[in-house]
Amino acid sequence: MPFTGFGEVAERLRRSTVVVGGSFGGGGSGVIVSGDGLIATNAHVLNGRRISVQLWDGRELEASLIRMDHSRDLAALRIRAASPPAAVLADSSQVRAGELALAVGNPLGFVGALSTGVIHAVGPLPGLGSATWVQASLRLAPGNSGGPLANACGDVVGINSMVAGRLALAIPSNIVKNFLAGRALPAWLGVTVSPVQIPGSGLFGLLILEIEEGSPAALASLLPGDTLLGTEERRFVAVEDLRTLLEGDGERQVRFEFLRGDYANVRKVTVLLGGAKPAERPRAA
Question: What pTM does this model have?
Answer without folding.
Answer: 0.71
